[in-house]
Amino acid sequence: MFRVTRRYHFAASHRLHSEVLSEAENWRVYGKCNNPYGHGHNYVLHVSALGLADKVAGHAVNVPLLDGLVEREILKHLDHRNLNADVDWFGQEVPTTENLGLAICRRLKRKWREAFADDWPRLDRVCIEETPRNIFEIDAGEIE
Predict the structure, then answer these.
(1) CATH of the structural domain 2-142, one choice from 2.60.40.1180, 3.30.479.10, 3.90.45.10, 3.10.105.10
(2) Chain-wide mean pLDDT for the chain?
(3) 137 has catalytic annotation
(4) Residue 119: its pLDDT value, please?
């Protein structure tokens, strides 16, 4: 069994702000990330899939298929966007990187079998680096 991980990049901005909290509570919870004008990140997205090496092709994941799926379902919707204003994936949720990772994982899981019709490969993990110090990882098997 192999785990194949592909790395992607996108830039996006957001403001961490909850409508159910007061201005003071938002500032206490989110600090400088609650800036009314937002702030941006150059995110690094890692998508990992588990697969068995194909006896003919020799690879565990068809990388062009994975790249196409991530481009269509994730990058074209997020790159150079304001997550609060331009992306409707969050509803009333605050676009934290935890919620962003969860939304990415759910979108990939919903469309996975359209890209990969067989039992293998399987989506394994989604990891987002918001900054070099803030890294969020989601186990796809734990997400519905």
Answers:
(1) 3.30.479.10
(2) 95
(3) no
(4) 83
